[in-house]
Please model this.
Amino acid sequence: MTRPRSRTGRSLTSLQRLAALCGALLAVACAATAPKPTPPVPPAVSIPIAPLPVRPTSGDAKFDAFLQAARITALGQGITAATFDSATAGLAPIPSIVAANANQPEFSKPVWSYLDSAVSARRIKDAKLMLARHGDVLARIEAAYGVPKEILVSVWGMETDYGAGNGGTNIFAALATLAYDGPRAEYARAEFFAALKIYQEQRYALSEMRASWAGAFGQTQFTPTTFLKYAVDGDGDGKIDLWQSVADALASAARLLAEQGWNKGQAWGFEVRLPAGFAYEDADTDTQKPLSDWRARGVKRIGGAALPAGADSAAIYLPAGANGPAFLLFPNFNVILKYNNAASYALAVALLADRMAGADPVVHTWPRAERPLSRNERFSFQQDLARLGFDPGLPDGLLGRKTRAALRQYQKSRSMAADGFATAALLMALEKDAAQQP
Ligand code: CA
Model:
């Protein structure tokens, strides 16, 4: 997990924080009151819930104010003052994280380049080594959770290269930096308080709690909230250690995927061949149809075999548009998305798992001649769509779901293959059309 992801369920609104504070004050009030059925007048609550320590300033007033407020919230949630003060001693915003948090990459990496490195020959070779080395542990975890060992090793490889890249940042410094300001504050605040809870309950040494800049940690890069929901003691030594214990990390990943609805015995999907004249607007990870429907439309396996009959629902996914490979996706693909909500990530996990099981590489060629759009071009893309009356959502330069839907509408209106895939040629066509608008 190299970035904050969407599965972070809990977030603290200021109202909830206020409620937590009020709860703490009430508890003090109750403790100070004699147990009478009808107390005459409640005593005035003038005792602070815990003395606020005098902290040396971090050099950033907003950051200091965040920590002061967070301390009150944390104590209201049952975190001890000792835990909080130990976790946050000497914290200051990390400049590199502030910068990473604010920046959007100039170019988004094309999916084929991403897959070249994510599913490299070296990573496949290492995956096979890991399958052999941890065979017993993996067999036990697969039997317990129903998630194939290849998928687990694949997630492990994608997240940290099988434990090599655990992340080296103090988790509280990383999360406080993201939480005090910036676009990920809501995500990071929930994670910050979850990390405090883990620190208090699991009794890790602070020096052990190393994380990525986004606050994900351990060999399978759990965020603190996912740790609290899914982490398990896979090796049975009585503690959960996602940093050092391969069994703990893999069992925890398996539990996450199982509880997110992994269908035991069902594949993630496979590469398919689309017939001429295929309705590309239906090729979308969100558009589920029965297998029999795709079969009736002439979709075949990449080798030419017919799709299985049946009512299982599946989607068609074109990671690089109509000129690239096509994949049929079963619901398990969406379960991988719960680990990291990026379709290219889920595809890499799926393809790496296939390769370590001996499958052939993707057959259809990638449109490698397409050049990536720059940030300015991505913004222009959205502005041009809006000018032409297609709603791309907020112009954010990200070309997300809403922009793709608007692009499909534009493509349909111009009798193009409506694949929703942004290319430089399409941008030229859009600009020409938009220039003719009054
Ligand atoms: Ca353990």
The radius of gyration is 25 Å. The longest strand covers residues 269-273. The chain has 18 helices and seven strands. The pocket of calcium ion is lined by residues 233, 235, 237, 239-241, 245, 248 (CB under 6 Å).
